Amino acid sequence: QAVVTQEPSLTVSPGGTVTLTCGSSTGAVTSGHSPYWFQQKPGQAPRTLIYGASNKHSWTPARFSGSLLGGKAALTLSGAQPEDEAEYYCLLSYSSGRRIFGGGTKLTVL
Amino acid sequence: EVQLVESGGGLVQPGGSLRLSCAASGFTLSDHYMDWVRQAPGKGLEWVGRSGNKANSYNTDYAASVEGRFTISRDDSKNSLYLQMNSLKTEDTAVYYCASLSGGKGWGQGTLVTVSS
């Protein structure tokens, strides 16, 4: 079974920019993996920020963007706000029909 | 208002069964692919399975950890999604969420399943 990897933790300054990445043990992440990005704050259900690598929902703040970068899926936060401090998860889809989450990145805004 | 509400969680002994429900309101569930996701206490998210929409004949896929034990089904008349969980193990203890990951209908609030003797 594939393993999906994320940075365990990252720190960004208020107003700064940070990129979270999502890799696959099977090789390069492509649009075929239909990458998702989710945000979860303590005590809350997750919410979907990005689907299909770069598509946003109506509630996704404009400062978040998704892309494919260097063989990985990437979530870039430009102009970090204190309320962006949260756990971020990516999800990849595989040809078997199965989907696998990454272990999550704890983002600190400090 | 678009809403997903899970129910049916509780305490069950190892080897037992439980059926979770996910009631949708504000939209037609049969039009949408739906996923079940779980989160063990203090741990990350784990994908459990997915049901395609009506046009896809509600095709299902499951994580290796639950295949053969869990079954996803729907009742269009009740606009609801279900997760039948059999042969439960202590490691199935988690909050279970239903979610419309790409359909823009969000996530439910989750229901806690505790498998313990």
Range of strand content of chain B:
over 45%
Low-confidence stretches of chain A: none
- What's the total helix number of chain A? 0
Largest sheet of chain B: 7 strands, mixed
Sequence of secondary-structure elements of chain B = EEEEEEEEEEE
Share in helix of chain A: under 10%
List the helices and strands of chain A in order: EEEEEEEEEEE
Quaternary status: heterodimer
Beta-strand content of chain A = over 45%
Q: In angstroms, what separates the terminal alpha carbons of chain B?
A: 40 Å
The unreliable regions of chain B are none
What's the tally of helices of chain B?
A: 0
Work out the radius of gyration of chain B.
13 Å
Helix fraction of chain B? under 10%
Shape of chain A: globular
Sheet having the most strands of chain A: 7 strands, mixed
Number of strands of chain A: 11
Kindly report the average pLDDT value of chain A: 96
In total, the number of strands of chain B is: 11
Structure overview:
- The complex is a heterodimer of chains A (110) and B (117).
- With 110 residues, chain A is an all-beta fold.
- Chain A is built from no helices and 11 strands.
- Chain A has strands at residues 4-6, 9-12, 17-24, 36-40, 47-51, 55-56, 64-69, 72-78, 86-93, 99-101, 105-109.
- The radius of gyration of chain A is 13 Å and the shape is globular.
- Chain B has 117 residues and is mostly beta strands.
- Helices cover 0% and strands 50% of the residues of chain B.
- Chain B contains no helices and 11 strands.
- In chain B, the strands form 2 sheets. In chain B, strands 2, 4, 5, 6, 9, 10 and 11 form a 7-stranded mixed β-sheet that branches. Chain B has a 4-stranded antiparallel β-sheet with strand order 1-3-8-7, with no helix packed on it.
- The radius of gyration of chain B is 13 Å and the shape is globular.
- At the A-B interface, β4, β5, β9 and β10 of A face β5 and β10 of B.
